[in-house]
Amino acid sequence: MSELSDLLNRFMKEKEIPSIQIVQGVDIDRSTVYQYLRGRREIKNRAHLEAICAILRLTPEEHQQITRAFHMAAVGPEQYAQWEKLEDMFTSLSRVEEQITPLEIDLQIQLPDEGRVFTGFQEVARISGAVLTDAMGGARCDILLQPSASLLSALILAQLRPEGTDTPVRHVICMESNAKTGVVQNIEILQELLRHSVALRNYSPIFYYGSIPDHFGTTNILPGLIVSDRAALTISGDATSGMLYRAPEAVALFQRRFDQIASVCRPLLSYTVAPPDAFQYSLRFYHQHVKSTRTTMEYGFCCSPFLDKYLLDKYLNPTVAAYGASRQVVDVFVDQITAYCKKYGSCHICAVENIDELLETGYFSDFPRLFMRTSLSPADRCYFLRKILQAMADGWHSLHLLKENRGLLSAKWSACFTPGTALYIQRKMESGDCFVICPEPGITAAAWNYYQAILQSDRVTTKAETMALLEERVQSFLADQG
User: Fold this and answer.
1) What is the CATH number of domain 272-481?
2) For the chain, which terminal residue's Cβ has fewer other Cβ atoms within 10 angstroms, N or C?
């Protein structure tokens, strides 16, 4: 029997509902229902499942268990586990800048002049912190440790936060993949890597595919490595033993060895902090990557394709620095983004609350108010929503509204997915945007498939439902305005 049929039978037993009551209570062929309940036939029809659930009178928690088992049966447990990790990562982006709980360890230790052995987690943590701090004043900081290690996470966020340093941090990571299915099995480490990217100015995670237990297991002696200009530290997999090297020839050996490892690795993330040409940066991404229908996801509307000259002339704030040059760049950006969307198509997922928020306030949740001279007038709020409706009617834009915010990015973040290219994540700030690009095919494919699954689920409105809801909201708003 499958997990889904097991759950159905468990709830039938707990609620003392016999199978005959379900058979008689649903409009489904009785033999089909019996096959469902006995696990001899997979339930692929969501309407059939919901009909059975209605008879069982499930609690919200029980219904969530059934839904999870249904989706897992459709794509397989491994694929579904990967999608859950992606959803957790995207949801957690709103917390990416939070400080982790500080280590209850005094990390203030001078880097010893001579090499020596360290034992015990606290001692290894202290000497690791000393090497990392020393590295930040030099030309290199090289790390070979898994980001899920509590030691590394704590040290990176506690020790490597100086805003004034541009020391490049290269971080080698082992990624695991199922050889048969190609599913990336430790995709959840992206959540930690994004936190490191925010904490560090010049952070470059690179990766290779392999087996984490083989490299970092207890049978492998001191597999972890931190290398600076003046020191090298090897660390056991459990972070309870370490060996510090200070002799120049030994440090040079580990530097060469790390360079050899890095030479066979590939970039996992690239993080660009507030580039002065943010609009051109986005356009370069489109030129390089967007060659087919794109799917974007964020809390807000992704309003750029609908900010025409009329809205820009009326609402773009002329008091912002270098308004004249900025306005020219914005005009080009909006025109080209709109052209890309019309040529290749655009599909967008956002929160349903955005409609009411725009109508109530006249501001876009995904557009900094600093750049607007005032809120949109009531008439222009409707004008903007009708532009979206027209784009949907013309066929080049599709808007879907999440019925619940689970899996949705916060207002500070947006993500763009295009098949076969790269995962593009944008962090929005008043001082300028930051951009994260993940080119790894296994991860970008997983992200693309995940959001395609959301689009095909009942978690979002259909295109027709969205258009009807937008029209209803506009008409109701106009009626309230008198």
Assistant:
1) 3.30.870.10
2) C
